[in-house]
Every structure is written in structure tokens, then in C-alpha cells.
Amino acid sequence: MSDKIEAIEQIFKLKHLHRNHNKQKAGFKTNRPRRSADTHKRSTYDAKSSGLIGREKLEDPDAEADILKFVHDFITHVVERLRNTMCFVVVLDGAVLLNAPSWTLFNLMASSPLYMVLVMCL
Amino acid sequence: MKDLNKVGGRGSAKHQSSMMRIHANPFFVDRDNTYMRNFHDAYGREDLIATVIEDIESYVVDVKNLDKKHFWALAVRGDIGSGKTLFARKLLLELSSHEYQILRPLIKQNNSQFHFRYIVSSGTSNGSLKFLGIWRPFLRQLLEIYSTHEHQSKERIINSQI
Which of A80, B34, B94, B147 is the most exposed place for a label (fewest CB within 10 A)? Predict the structure, then answer.
């Protein structure tokens, strides 16, 4: 739970959301290489180009689905609530860089009713 | 253009999407090779933006089955430097300049407050490594807009959703 809330705080750039307990954990961990002599000897170019270095990972892998569901529900709720006032026109430039969770969110959005205009530059 | 209209559909309740190709990369000097010949049927020189705006207008104004309406999506693909971003920018400019014209039926029917809300997010290689990287600016702006509309703090809104 704490992991999920920490991740949501990072996504929305918020602080001090309610938690069930006081245990604080980092929502995401980044698999950056440690700066040791051994690391400098090896070329990290291949790993970087494959996207293995610097990629965020959730400490609890099961939390990913929960967060995606939460974000999807949030988008649906807001768009539905503001439907009589505004129509969102969303432009995603550089959408070719969408990662797997981002495409999952896109698929979730596509599967449910959403009054919105979306332009993606791939 | 006909293909674009066919794929996009008009006002249907189903998920609407279009895949379009804009003009060829101007950095390619040799235009006689096979690769460049494949671009001959590109849409670049036609007045594409007007057609896209027409399509958006029919989607936005048609309020039938509003509860079941899926988002209207347009995917623009092309080479590096082919003008995808420029196209999106011009589309936004045109859309904003014709906003009142497009939304006039809705404004007359429902309320005078109805408007487009533009949210732009740009993906970077660094952002692609982050969880929901490209969606983050969109989500933050969505929360900002909603909190202003509801006169509530962002934390309170998120806490009520969790």
C-alpha cells in the first residue's frame, strides 16, 4: 500500500498523501549501476541502449496493475465530471517513446468511454 | 483523404482512430529511390488540417450516445524531421482559432462555458524510462484543472480517489 501511494505521489508530484501505516518506502527504484572501478571498466553503452539502466521499477511488482487502474479511474472520473464544461484536446508528442505501462494505460483508456480528442505523434 | 475519413468515422460510439502519414523527410536528397517513391501517396501537400478539424468537429458536436463515446484518436507517423510536431502545433493553432465556430452548437444548446482544454505532453528518452513517463505531465495538468474546478486541494482529490 505504501509502495503504491509513494508511486502515486511521484507520478502526480504530490507530498503527504494518507497512508495506512508509517512505514515509508521508495515507490520506484532505479537500476543505475554503482560507481565502482568495475563498472567503469565495462562499457555500459549496450545496457544503456537497451534501456536497462535508469529504468524505474516498482518494488512491489503487483502494485503496477493497481496504479494503472487507479490512474485510469482518475482520468475517467475527471473527464466524465467535466464533460459538460470542457472537451480535452491532448497532444502526445514523441509517443514513439511510450513504454509498456504507458501503452497499457492507453489500451485501458481506449476500452472505456472517454470524451476526449487525442493526437499522438509517433 | 477519403481513407482518413473512412477509418476515423463520424460520431460513432465506437473507438475512432486514424493513422496518417505526413510529407516526406526533406533531408532525403535522392528522391528517385524506391524508399522515396513510396512517399508519393503521402498527404503532405493537401489541406489536411482542415479535414482533421472537420472530423474533430463532427466528433465533439455530436452528442448522441455521449455516455458511450470513446476518445477520438489521431496517430501521426513519419520520419525524424518530417514535421510531425509542426503538424500537431499547427493543428492546435487552427483548432484554437476556430474554437468558437466549432463549439457554437454546443454553446447555444448547453452553456456558454463550454470550451476546449489543451494539454500537451512531450516524450523524451529520459521520460520513457520512468513509469508512465509521457503521461505524467498530462496527469498533473488534469489534476491541476480538476482541483481548480472543484476548489479542492490536489492531495484531497487524490486521497478521495485512493
Answer: B34
